[in-house]
Amino acid sequence: MRNFLHDVCKRLIDIFGSLIGLVIFSPVCLVTAIAIEIDSPGTILADTPKRVGKNGNLFRLLKFRSMIPNAHNLLHTDPHFKKLLEEYKKSSYKLHDDPRVTKVGKFIRKHSIDEVPQFLNVMRGEMSLVGPRAYYPFELEEQQKKYPNTVALVKEVLTVKPGVTGQWQVSGRSEINFDKRIEMDAEYARRKSIVYDLIILMRTPLAMITGKGAV
């Protein structure tokens, strides 16, 4: 009964919260879309592989494009990006100096503006406002090989929906390696607290403004 009430309350918060978020950020979304269009050719939204959601279900995470077109495929197939790909894997699938990022992209990534379209993922029930990071399938596979002690933690993380924001995002975000991130995500999955969700939501604006740990 407790889990049922938690899930119902969380879903209601997700629906109303994402609606409010879309209304508040609609002017920002418009300006961002125009800026992306002017800054570089390509689509407004990022064309990236699907992410892993609750129970291992794959979905397309919506983000404003912050990189050059076809950036993901280029990283994995273009010989010019071979060293960058190696660095990408070694640094827990995060790059602090990525040449694929556009000028506009650098700004919107720093302040998490690229994440705003994920409110639509929340509305569709694929994500929650608060939850673990939505990982790529290959990322989870490779990182579990690198950190074998995280296998059980990943299973726990996949019992809940990924979030637009979360515990590790407001606690250093990309400055935290995978093993620490997944540990924090698993702790969140065990906790299942509406009060804790609200605390994370209140901390998120400061993380967006300061851009701490963003890449």
Describe this structure in words.
- It contains nine helices and four strands; from the N terminus they run αββααααβααβαα.
- A hairpin with a 5-residue loop joins β1 and β2 (58-59).
- It has one domain (2-65, 102-210).
- The chain has 215 residues and is mostly helical.
- The strands form two sheets. The chain has a two-stranded antiparallel ribbon with strand order 1-2.
- The longest helix is centred in the N-terminal third of the chain and has 38 residues, at 2-39.
- The protein is globular and about 55 Å long.
- α1 (2-39) runs antiparallel to α4.
- The chain has helices spanning 2-39, 71-77, 82-90, 103-110, 118-123, 137-146, 151-157, 178-191, 194-210; strands at 51-52, 58-59, 128-130, 163-165.
